[in-house]
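We emphasize that the prediction below concerns an isolated chain of 1004 residues; any contacts that depend on oligomerization or on bound cofactors are therefore not represented. The input was used exactly as deposited, without trimming of termini.
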Amino acid sequence: MTDTDHRAATAPHHGDTSATTASGAYWADLTPGSGRLAPRAHFPLGGRRLDLGGTWSFRLSPVADAPLDFLAPGGPAEGARSWSPLTVPGHWVLQGHDVPRYTNTAYPFPIDPPHVPDANPTGDHHRTFDLPDDWPVTGDGSTVLRFEGVDSCFRVWLNGVELGTSKGSRLPSEFDAGPALRRGRNDLAVRVHRWSSGSYLEDQDMWWLPGIFRDVTLLEVPPGSVGDCFVHASYDHERGSGTLRIESDVPALVSLPGLGIHDHPADRPITLPGVEPWSAELPRLYDADLAPLSGAAPVRLRVGFRTVAIHDGRFTVNGAPVLLRGVNRHEHDPDRGRAIDRDTMREDLLLMKRHNINAVRTAHYPPHPAFLDLCDELGMWVMDECDLETHGFIHADWVGNPADDPRWRPMIMDRMRRTVERDKNHPSVVIWSLGNESHHGTNLQALADWTRERDPSRPLHYERDRTYRHSDFYSLMYAPVNEVDRIGRHEEQAPPETADAPEAEARRRRLPFLLCEFAHAMGNGPGSLAEYQRTLESHPRCAGAFVWEWIDHGLRRTGEDGRTYFAYGGDFGDSPHGGTFCIDGLLFPDRTPSPGLAAYKKAIEPVGIGLDPAAGRIALRNRYDTRDLAHLLFRWTLETDGTPVADGELKTPPVPARHDADMPFPELPGLLPEPPGRAAGPAGETWLTVRAVLAADEPWAPAGHEVAWAQTRVGGPLRRPADTGPGRTPAVATFDERTGLLKDLAGLGLEGPYLDVWRAPTDNDRGMGENSVLRLWRKAGLDRLVPRTESSDRRPHELPVRSRWAPDGLPHGLRVRHGWAPDGEALRLTVEISPDGPWAGLTLPRVGVRFTLPARHDRVRWYGKGPGEAYPDSAQAARVGLFGADVAALQTSYVVPQENGRRADVRWAELTDPATGRGLRVEAAGGMGVFGLTVRPWSVEQLEAAAHPHDLMPGERLHLHLDVAQHGLGSASCGPAPLGWHQLRPQPWRMDLLLRPLAPGGPA
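Result of the prediction step, given as a token string:
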């Protein structure tokens, strides 16, 4: 079937009223729409365009069949009651009308397909516009009215003439406006229903946000213009040539000036030697003009030559295996919902590129078409997903699931057609996805069959049917690292659906493996990103993975106290709701990168830098799929105790993609003189850091942008430890003689230590259902340990104390021995902690001690890992150095307050009062080496009790947490627990710390 035939076969007749049932409830029938034009590719048509966005008049009614009293000439009277201004594109629930609702899997209405409740908020939209005098008003298709996205069902009138209806919220709908158009003033009216039969296909773990949320445009289509085309631009990697053929709905000629091609018949294949292929790493686009033979204006296309294939069980582009380092991306803005503009889309992509992300799954619907234009331009592999998810039928045991009901096939098929036809010309789109979490059924088979016939050049993806008969990938969500490793080695168990079907199972085992969702980025986390990436890179079968997800779906609100915060499910009085489960992104709602994004960037960096100081060698691994390393510079820095002492640039070869190289260390200076002004302290360290940075500006980042880095210790002590012998006056300390707790040190107001084993639960600690370590911790009473002092024996130069900490009603506990002793002008604290009683199978949140001191000591300086927070399985983005910040800056303001702000592998830390310069220095002593540091202006209990950050108010005391270990993060909010070696299990622990008062300019 030709493209022209396809459009004719799918185009409804104008005036089609088949979408209206006998009762008139078109919003609840099983037709996708009426009066629409056939779906087509998205590109600028040959004529003018009139943007109809801006301020419209709006009225909200509680039911779907409200009076159509606004269709009279002129529309609603100016200033009419119940009508108010509304911004389009936009959502009425974010502009003061009704409220947004968030659910994860549950439908926010009864499961009664295809029906929706009588209470169906319906928004009537109206605006007038003036048509240019020379704009044609004939009824021959010369003017198209295009809606890019309307949620969830709408009906449109132009000058009182009904043009049609449409469902399919995240897809375009076009109508022939010519018959109703008139010169001068025109009245456009759109009725939008919040709920429709289409809502059953749009249960996609996100806010339900009704309205006209994408562009509305009037398009001029001059006679004989190109209305649709299908660009076939392949690349032969063996010959280095491209082949171009363009199907057009009118006879046309194609020109590619950059390749010396002029006026070539578009439908006749042409081979082009010397073509530069398109890839996400080098997104080479060629401008092409498609000129109709009719003489109508040509249309401009951007062509990328590339060939996608699955070869020997590997996903390849242009003959090279590709590893997708991806994210799932919902469209979201904290103020505008899904009504996002091109600048915001570009900002998203720039952040992705700068954090080494190379792939996007458009979860779970096609994005705004401008996003794909930007993916073509900047370079991003895209899995383009159909606007289909019926997850809520899980609560009906999948009875009535539309995916397996033939009556729903026209609606479901319509969505796939509109996806493929709109986005078929984007080189960035390398995979079609049939939808998400819709169980299985015959309608998915129909989607797969149609898509394979329409576009055999791209593979298909669908995860939830575990026979994978509709998919060209073996795909899972949230598989643990060890399972991914088994799959990579082809040693996984067969799923029940194929265990007794040898042919289906054999096919599944030949498929490349994809984690379409993993590493649930909810709150503090996710953990184990580095382990996942190492595993994916180890096995050719693995095609990559997509983190869930890109951005937190918080909506900005202002509290009664005037402070803003980001709302989640239930904050608007919405019920049922999915609570905080929409807060699960690598970006905070305002697009501030979270620590999780920094950790992901490090885990997926495209250059491996292995530093071996013993051998004096550097091993480079090029992890790019197609690009060599000639675009990078490798710079090294030598630091002693965090102070730079030497630097330089490495001479590196242009290592080809997926190859390794080896080179010598730079010539490092020997023992260097101690930098002036360094305060006395423990023995120094010398670290070598090697950074790969852009040698020149790229479209997505400036020269000097860091792509990858590595660090290793190359030197030990450079000077004697601080003098702690006779002649130094010990700091004056006051103790509680019974408990051995410090009440003050040198007038600093320092109090402690208190045993510290609890943390404000992270979202991943809370887990999902039975996958909740928090449930086990609470059952074990770890949040309610109470102390009993067993002995306190004051001696001339020491104060040893024994105590036991245990929960009420339970036999297990922790025995603690802590002792104080003078050490020069410092005070030495030794803490030994050991489990007591039946601890089998239990883990702990953290182990350490806690102090408090006055809040005025709010300037923190430390030598250890930074600058950001780090936990056992998320520390890869932190490097050893000297850092400083005030206490407020040390907090990570997660949308849902939880454990945050820990700095890892700290050698020493100082807390000072900026006004006086006085403060406290804490040093790792004895064999301890390093500790974990957290400083907060509120207690763990206050942090745990807060629902939003604005609930937290700094107090008069700082809370200083020094830990010897913490439990890992994992991603159990919707995924696996921390790996075994990142779990904190009971064992004996010891801490050795020096507490040193600071005077202005140095120790007291």
